[in-house]
Amino acid sequence: MKQAIHFINLPAQPDPAAAPTPTTAAGLQAVLDNLDALVYVSDFKTHELLYMNAYGRRVWGQPDGRKCWQILQDSEGPCSFCTNHLLADENDKPNPPHVWEFQNQLDQRWYQCRDQAIRWTDGRLVRLEIATDITDRKQMELELHAAHEEARTAALSDELTRLHNRRAFFEFGNPLLSQARRHNHPLALIMMDLDLFKKINDTFGHDAGDEVLRQVSALIRDRIRKSDIVARMGGEEFALLLPETDADQALETTERFLKLLKALTVHHQGHAIRPSASFGITLRAADDQRLEDLLKRADRALYRAKDLGRGQANLEVKNVD
């Protein structure tokens, strides 16, 4: 007896390459229009906006065939920060998506952008961007960064004089020494100590001493180069680190400060105070490994200047065979 064979007609599987049905297209449009992010498509070469979702139309208006840079940035030409060159290779083959953050110049809000080159329905290469507003998060990041920078600045500053403190002198000075060693360039260190400062405090009071420190610090700070480092090392002692400075230049700088100090009168509560200072100078030697090596020589030179009568400068140079 023969078995009966039954054939079952299975429904045909949809062709993945087939165009979406109207229902699918409407659903996709609904998804895109309900995203809380900008989605747009622009021609890779002409920059014409081919599509923008409801979020984008609500914020920037209807595309109306305009260029992406016209509607999104209100500029007169392609954006200088356009990422198209990152999205495809020289053969117009799409690269992996590029994710980045930027602040829109039109609305001043921050966006995280996911840019990608894709093929449009007609086969041409287009730019697809999904941009999510991250302004609140970015503002928190910027405020946190500013707080960290403020704390760091406070940790590296002398509160009274607004100069760098001792910690900052070494943090910023060591790279200058390393650079000078690497390129065999000159580097000068000047130590300055106010003469008989205890007498100023004892005679006129500590408030007067503080005012002297502030005015002397301002005098120095306003007359150094941006590349120089000046720090209050403690008490009435200061250090100046001068890159690209030889002996003659260091002596000239010191003489200038001596003249300025001689002309300085600090007025405080009816008193006229005439501060003076002594200076010790040294230059980087070939075998100097640390800033401490220069500080020791400059300190010795400083105290020789005091022994010789104060209000003057002394230079100590290390000779290396």
Automatic annotation (TrEMBL):
Reactions mediated catalytically? 2 GTP = 3',3'-c-di-GMP + 2 diphosphate
Write down the InterPro entries for this protein, in alphabetical order: Diguanylate_Cyclase, GGDEF_dom, Nucleotide_cyclase, PAS-like_dom_sf, Rev_trsase/Diguanyl_cyclase
* Gene3D superfamilies reported in the protein's UniProt record: 3.30.70.270, PAS domain
Q: Which Pfam families match?
A: GGDEF
Return the protein name: diguanylate cyclase
GO molecular function terms here?
Answer: diguanylate cyclase activity
| Sequence ranges assigned to domain GGDEF in this UniProt record | 185-318
